[in-house]
Amino acid sequence: MKPAAFDYVRVTSIDEAIALLAKHGDEATVLAGGVSLGAMLNMRLVRPGILIDIKGIEALSAVHDAGTQLTIGVIVRQADLMVSAPAMAAVPLLAKAFPHIGHMQTRSRGTLGGSIAHADPSAELPLCLVTLDGAIELQSRAGIRTVKAREFFTGVLSTVRRPDELLTAIHWPTRSLRSGFGFDEIAQRHGDFAIVAAACHVKLTESGLINQLDVGLGGVEDRPLAFILHEFIGAKPDAALARALADHVMGLVAPTGDVKASAAYRKALVRLLVERVFQQAAASVEHAAREGVVVIPKALHDTASKAAGEVIGGHTKAAISVDLNGRTVRGSAEPRMLLSDFLRHELGCYGVRVGCEHGVCGACTVLVDGVAQRSCLQRAIEADGTSITTVEGLSPGNTMNALQEAFRRHHALQCGFCTPGILASATHFLRDNSQPTEDAVRDMLSGHICRCTGYHGIVQAILDAARPVSQ
Ligand SMILES: Cc1cc2nc3c(=O)[nH]c(=O)nc-3n(C[C@H](O)[C@H](O)[C@H](O)COP(=O)(O)OP(=O)(O)OC[C@H]3O[C@@H](n4cnc5c(N)ncnc54)[C@H](O)[C@@H]3O)c2cc1C
Ligand code: FES
Ligand code: FES
Fold first, then answer.
1. Cβ of residue 354 lying under 6 Å from some atom of ligand 2
2. Comparing C-alpha atoms, which of 233, 228, 204 is closest to residue 216?
3. Pocket flag, ligand 2, residue 359 (CB < 6 Å)
4. CATH superfamily of 399-466
5. Could you read off the pLDDT of 430-468 as tens digits, one per residue?
6. Left, alpha or beta for 60 (phi > 0: left; psi -120 to 50: alpha)?
7. Given CA atoms 391, 397, 399, 401 in this order, what sign does their dihedral have?
8. Could you give the CA distance from residue 378 to residue 343 in angstroms, rounded to a whole number?
9. 182 and 96 Cβ atoms separated by less than 8 Å
10. pLDDT digit string, tens, across residues 370-423
């Protein structure tokens, strides 16, 4: 399915965004990475009158380290935060949770604030935020307010955010002395939303007894849950305590059953995961204070160049210019046109494949400014001014590059439907991982579905392409 028509406006300041939210109220929807919103638009689960694209607001990518609290702007991309070693050292629970959040190809576009605002009860970032007792900053014409994460989420995809409010920053409490963290989840497939996810924060006294204990759960009820477990203060953090804690927390929850898992199965997972994350947290307690200040060096805001502040009507064909495979090309598209359709139907790049149109199969993956992203989850208008590489541009003329040759040698394709998307992801992946492990390749491939090959040949081809010629 394709989205219904909507107006589109790209803004570059918070003031512009909140003025538009005040003007359009319920009719307006904020667009960040579009990784969740894109799928909902495509399936017509939402039909906004106007999309306000906030990726051009540089102020929303600011990061401020105040020692006990790290404040991160909402449009910081998940992939950029995940590779910031100082940020991960400041909030170690995030470092443990990030590998479970979707796939490389969704984290490369999904933002921090988008995940919090979306409020999926199984999502990892909201779970980490409630476990750590963090907070969310919201801004509207009425001013700025800060809401505790534990009061922010009100139900499935529901929060206390008013329609005229913009999330601007997320406050993450940083690691304190003698604290440890644990995170784990069970999902059907790596990168899927969790059936149950659990997080734990433990703080010990100087003599090694529990001083503070917080456990968070995702996927269990209609919102992420946090328990402050005063009854375990003063206890020794050993295996017996882990079991007692797991039994205790299991008794506090009332899971819901759905197509993925029954309520009873979820309850059993709560016991298993709470025991596990507590042991992880107790074993990871750090006895030295955190050093240094977090600075995320990269410019994290959007590079697209569509004129800011101009509302483009739902049926207006806007001019779009992209650097496609090394050549500047121009076309036009209504705001609702997907980048995948624009590349195929306007620009003739039939190597871009369209499968599911909700971000799961990976067939439509292309390189946007060198980064593997789903072209079915973004609109062509968002890509104006960017540089796009499709399978047609991976090697000159009719030649094949080393990766494509390796795919041929290892019989890494049969029908070839999934191959252009996988090549795009593998190109990005090999640039950042020159000597990857097989596990890392499989992790990257979890963002793609191939119905023919069984993956073995694909994994071998990517490993082979990464190997120096002399080996
Ligand atoms: C295949 C696949 C697997 C995934 N797996 C996981 C997973 O395992 N775990 C997980 O947590 N997520 C997962 N996701 C979702 C992904 O993490 C999204 O990136 C994230 O949920 C939304 O971020 P976004 O920036 O794309 O937000 P968008 O999609 O742009 O927005 C999401 C919602 O938040 C609102 N919004 C965004 N920013 C603001 C703001 N500043 N102020 C007010 N409202 C705002 C939007 O209006 C929209 O309603 C998956 C997605 C896909 C496609
Ligand atoms: S992920 Fe885009 S078509 Fe399936
Ligand atoms: S080769 Fe046919 S879907 Fe992958």
1. yes
2. 228
3. yes
4. [2Fe-2S]-binding domain (1.10.150.120)
5. 999 989 999 999 999 999 999 998 899 999 999 999 976
6. alpha
7. negative
8. 12
9. yes
10. 999 999 999 999 999 999 999 999 998 889 999 999 999 999 999 999 999 999
Residue whose CA lies nearest to ligand 3 atom number 2: 415
Using pLDDT thresholds of 50, 70 and 90, give the confidence band for residue 332.
very high
Amino acid at 144: I
Sequence-ordered list of residues with C-beta below 8 angstroms from that of 138, at least 6 positions apart, any chain: 144, 145, 146, 147, 161, 162, 165, 166, 167, 168
Structure-token pair, residue 178: 């003698």
What ligand 2 atom has the least distance to the C-alpha of 376? 2
The residue behind tokens 């204070």 is 289
CATH entry 3.90.1720.10 includes domain 312-393: no
In the chain, ranges of CATH 3.30.465.10 domains: 63-283
Cα dihedral sign for 460, 465, 466, 471? positive
pTM above 0.90, yes or no: yes
Judge: domain 63-283, CATH 3.40.309.10.
no
- Determine the residue type at 422: I
